[in-house]
Design a protein that fits this description.
Number of domains: 1
Number of strands: 7
Bound molecules: NADP nicotinamide-adenine-dinucleotide phosphate
CATH class: Alpha Beta
CATH superfamily: NAD(P)-binding Rossmann-like Domain
CATH topology: Rossmann fold
CATH architecture: 3-Layer(aba) Sandwich
Helix content: 40-55%
Strand content: 15-25%
Order of helices and strands: EHEHEHEHHEHEHHE
Structural class: alpha/beta
């Protein structure tokens, strides 16, 4: 009997990561969710049911913590006779501010949290992804990585690097049948934004809705729909793609 296909999703305690985990579990696949805050991950487990959502808290920007965590994930895969069908590098933090106020520390924080942590996790699980090929990696970048706006230089530059890394890795791993794709969300209504949870009539939310030609902000489920397409066999001939899901904002 073939093994059950499992997925790792980073940043699964909230927003886009939680919605992607929900979508994968709904398709009948177990998910190992990662994030720093165990309360948020517990909340996702309550939402999805403990049967198919497993989690552990880890700061992925810390290489020691991260490698200890990998052992735990490997144990989970082994004990449950699972094969790693996909890895979603979604965890991220945003830093806003003018370029002249963006310190080395902020650049470093962006690099560690939004790029190196994903690079490291992908490299660490290469043996599993290779063994279970056809498999796939999905990186969550941003439309700011394609078309930046003022006051987000570190975030935008690091997200642009993620797009480029996606494409070089896609070329390198295509012969191994490990697909590597990238999603670039526009403005999505998640806790990453200060106006998340505010009353719908608030000025900030109204402005955010108006920024998209389609007339509304995205939802985490909008991104999860596209994520499942890129993870699943429905996109078996797609690698190195950079898909904007942004209500037309990038135009
Ligand atoms: N919402 C948007 O408008 C938008 C647009 C474009 C791109 N994105 C990208 O989408 C991704 C998800 O963001 P979101 O909007 O869903 O916001 P969110 O709800 O704040 O999710 C970010 C998640 O990343 C986790 N995380 C951050 N740093 C981490 C670390 N060092 N180790 C482990 N987990 C970490 C956070 O969990 P803990 O707090 O528990 O650590 C959190 O659950 C991010 O990469 C973001 O840049 C979002």
């Amino acid at each position: 009997m073939s093994k059950v296909q499992a997925y790792i999703v980073t940043g699964a305690g909230s927003g886009i990561g939680q919605a992607i985990a929900k979508r994968i579990v709904a398709q009948g696949h177990p998910v190992f969710g990662l994030g720093r805050d165990s309360k948020k991950l517990e909340n996702t487990a309550k939402l999805l049911g403990a049967k198919n959502f497993f989690f552990a808290s880890v700061n992925l920007a810390n290489s020691n913590e991260s490698s200890q965590m990998n052992a735990e994930i490997r144990k989970w895969l082994g004990h449950n006779d699972l094969t790693l069908a996909g890895l979603v590098n979604n965890a991220g933090v945003v830093d806003r501010g003018t370029f002249d106020s963006t310190s080395d520390g902020i650049w470093e924080r962006q690099f560690q949290n939004n790029l190196l942590s994903a690079v490291r996790l992908t490299r660490d699980f290469y043996p599993e992804l290779r063994a279970s090929a056809p498999s796939s990696v999905l990186n969550i970048s941003s439309n700011l990585g394609l078309r930046p706006i003022p006051n987000t230089s570190a975030y935008s530059a690091i997200k642009a690097a993620m797009v480029n890394w996606t494409q070089s890795l896609a070329l390198e791993w295509a012969p191994l049948h490990i697909r590597v794709n990238c999603l670039c969300p526009g403005l999505v209504d998640t806790p990453i934004h200060p106006f998340f949870g505010q009353d719908e009539s608030s000025e900030h939310r109204q402005m955010a809705h108006q920024l998209a030609p389609l007339g509304r902000m995205g939802t985490a489920d909008d991104i999860a729909d596209a994520a499942w397409f890129l993870l699943s066999g429905a996109s078996s001939w797609t690698t190195g793609s950079v898909l904007s899901v942004d209500g037309g904002m990038g135009l």
